[in-house]
Write a structure and sequence with these properties.
DNA-binding, elongated, homodimer
Chain lengths: 227, 227
DNA sequence: AGAAAAACAAGAGCACTGCTCACTTTTCTC
DNA sequence: GAGAAAAGTGAGCAGTGCTCTTGTTTTTCT
């Protein structure tokens, strides 16, 4: 039963989110102003509280959407390559994440940046967050199945192995400890590189951060993932 | 001429910074309130403007201090190891950064997290920011001099090589392109790992993030740095 | 179809924010 | 000690998130 009212409500909510995102991009998440949104829509500021109990709830909604967006971007990049082109998939995933992050720095910061203190991600955020993880783990499983050796065969501590087991079970991919370790290391590297660039740490370091990025993901593919 | 007045001023400034840091830790950088600081000190809010022209200037000051603090921590960790214990130095540097970041998450976020929008780091911040870079580059130079081979000998693109040259010149360490690439990759990895943990991305992933961290820096030492 | 219920919107108001400005008080310097 | 410089005051501006009362509109139930 999607009454006329329910539809109007949905439109209102999406309009709020649209304006909120524009505002965050322009002024930062900390300067997100409900009153400004209300002004733009042409409605009393108090009216917005019929849609979001609090400003943080709006932010949460945006964060969840963003997780989903990242998942979509990364999935699409992965899907664009042939499944057996392991290296190509890793590069595509990496580059798509970087491109998206540079195009939406504030959104990236919403997810991977400084969290708002006292703010705890509600359970809803966990689902969408697993989307890009699934892409990564699927690639790792394919790497293992293709017989690619991890670049490091030192034993994995039992405590850590147990935690890996939890991940395996949760995502349903049977990945060896060694491939898990290498894959997570690659992921840490990717997030670190993108974070540093998006958050401006390369501003006085690299004239062309893209060169650094591309060299780095290439390096990781070879030296970390062994593909 | 450090008159009584100058000293009082210095004390006032350090008191402001102390309270600001406490407030950022409790409420986040975005909720830093000059008025609240003034209240705590017991002075009119307008009085603070005798010390900082603007709220962002206070933030800048804190950021610069934090860069310096990170530099100190990392330098100390490095200095605690024998210079020829390359692997030990890398592990010590990595662990010290993580420990410090976990103990001062809001400070870490100030430097490596979402930047305050519209805020551009003034030239003053560049100096202290080079401190930890120096530690890293010195280690890389020592690694190269010890004859450790980088784990990847694919050619480094000319464009990137030119940017490496700028870094070499600026910091005065003569490091090969290959070692540079590996070292930066290791650094990306470290920052990524610490960021993800400090910003809470491991909350529903690793029961004991320390296990993951230690395995990861070990892995990087072997597979990336080749030490 | 008419009444009751639910949702929506408005606008005043509270307590807060960064920041300015005219003003007074304190301290340093000559 | 007089003049200058620095420090502190408090009112005020324009903005914020959020609440609460009031009134309107729409949906739902009988």
């Amino acid at each position: 039963m999607t009454g006329a009212r329910a539809q109007q409500r949905a439109e209102m909510i999406s309009e709020i989110k649209r304006l909120a995102r524009a505002q965050i991009a322009a002024e930062g998440a900390s300067n997100l102003s409900l009153r400004a949104i209300a002004r733009d829509i042409g409605v009393a500021s108090s009216a917005l509280y019929r849609y979001y109990d609090t400003r943080d709830q709006l932010l949460t909604d945006l964060i969840v959407e963003t997780y989903d967006e990242i998942g979509k971007v990364v999935e699409a990049a992965d899907a664009r390559m042939r499944r057996d082109d392991l290296r190509g998939r890793w590069l595509a995933i990496s580059r798509s994440l970087r491109s998206w992050a540079l195009a939406h720095p504030s959104d990236f910061g919403l997810v991977f940046g400084t969290p708002v203190p006292g703010y705890v991600a509600p359970a809803d955020t966990i689902g969408p967050a697993t989307r890009y993880t699934t892409v990564l783990l699927r690639l790792l499983a394919d790497i293992e199945n293709a017989g690619c050796d991890p670049t490091n065969d030192s034993p994995v501590a039992k405590n850590l192995s147990r935690q890996y087991a939890g991940l395996r079970k949760r995502f349903g991919y049977d990945i060896s400890d060694h491939h898990m370790r290498a894959g997570l290391s690659a992921w840490m590297n990717l997030i670190g590189t993108v974070s540093l660039e998006v958050f401006g740490q390369f501003d006085n370091v690299f004239a062309h951060p893209a060169d650094h990025f591309n060299a780095n993901v290439d390096f990781v593919a070879t030296s970390v993932l062994g593909i």
